[in-house]
């Protein structure tokens, strides 16, 4: 596989395109303190979960809590600035200039993506497809979302490269049989290294040619 030319790049959203992981951890820690105080650091334990998974696993018999959390989350996501991970826009543009197709593959739902695009309209023109939680029946770490995205872009799995940060996302990417670039934005390099072919801190200076020439890709 060394030096293989890849034809498509797949990006998770939070912690990969936008720098939101810390804000989400604070949000969910606050919800945990209110509704599930017996679970310390609640926000850390649900990283990579969809909202449906969080509600099903932790709030199944708490309809009032679910309604309150969903209202707070809607407001939180509408008001977030969605700051970019350093260098990501230039890198995605470089990929597309080289004929590489691109997709966002996120556990977030369509409502969240509407908030993202409202804040960052320029993202719409940088991706050929967006896969959300509504598109698949199984969440990360199951690879269904990446397999589905590859089919949407007409990409064979060995010809794709995935950019991920969370453990569930990295496991999903690895299970899809695509190459995996891990971002050390949510967990340390040491902790994510077993699930990655390449590890980066951000996209500063990263180019398509660098990845094509990488011994690991």
Name of the CATH class of the largest domain = Alpha Beta
CATH topology tier name of the largest domain:
Rossmann fold
In percent, how helical is the residue content? Answer: 40-55%
Q: How much strand content do the residues show?
A: 5-15%
Describe the structure.
With 217 residues, the chain is an alpha/beta fold. It folds into 2 domains: 8-19 and 83-213, Rossmann fold, CATH 3.40.50.1000; 21-79, no CATH class. Helices cover 43% and strands 12% of the residues. The chain is built from 10 helices and 6 strands; from the N terminus they run E-H-H-H-H-H-E-H-E-H-E-H-E-H-E-H. The protein has helices at residues 21-35, 42-45, 51-58, 63-79, 88-97, 110-119, 144-153, 167-175, 189-192, 208-213, and strands spanning 8-11, 101-105, 129-131, 160-164, 179-183, 198-200. A 6-stranded parallel sheet has the order 3-2-1-4-5-6. Helix 8 (167-175) links the parallel strand 4 and strand 5 (179-183). The protein starts with 7 loop residues before the first strand and ends with a helix.
Ordered list of secondary-structure elements with their pairings:
Blueprint: E1 8-11, H1 21-35, H2 42-45, H3 51-58, H4 63-79, H5 88-97, E2 101-105, H6 110-119, E3 129-131, H7 144-153, E4 160-164, H8 167-175, E5 179-183, H9 189-192, E6 198-200, H10 208-213
Parallel strand pairs: 1-2, 1-4, 2-3, 4-5, 5-6
Helix pairs in contact: 4-6
């Amino acid at each position: 596989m060394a030096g293989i030319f890849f034809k498509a790049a797949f990006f998770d959203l939070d912690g990969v395109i936008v720098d939101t992981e810390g804000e989400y951890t604070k949000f969910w820690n606050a919800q945990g303190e209110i509704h599930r105080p017996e679970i310390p650091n609640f926000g850390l334990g649900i990283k990579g979960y969809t909202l449906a998974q969080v509600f099903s696993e932790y709030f199944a018999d708490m309809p009032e809590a679910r309604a309150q959390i969903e209202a707070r989350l809607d407001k939180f996501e509408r008001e977030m600035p969605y700051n970019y991970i350093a260098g990501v826009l230039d890198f995605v543009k470089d990929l597309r200039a080289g004929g590489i197709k691109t997709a966002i593959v996120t556990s977030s739902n369509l409502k969240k993506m509407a908030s993202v695009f409202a804040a960052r309209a320029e993202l719409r023109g940088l991706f050929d497809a967006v896969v959300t939680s509504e598109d698949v029946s199984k969440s990360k770490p199951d690879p269904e979302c990446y397999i589905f995205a590859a089919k949407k872009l007409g990409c064979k799995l060995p010809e794709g490269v995935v950019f991920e940060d969370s453990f569930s996302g990295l496991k999903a990417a690895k299970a899809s049989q695509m190459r995996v670039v891990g971002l050390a934005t949510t967990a340390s390099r040491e902790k994510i290294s077993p699930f990655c072919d390449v590890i980066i801190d951000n996209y500063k200076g990263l180019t398509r040619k660098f990845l094509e020439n990488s011994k690991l890709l």
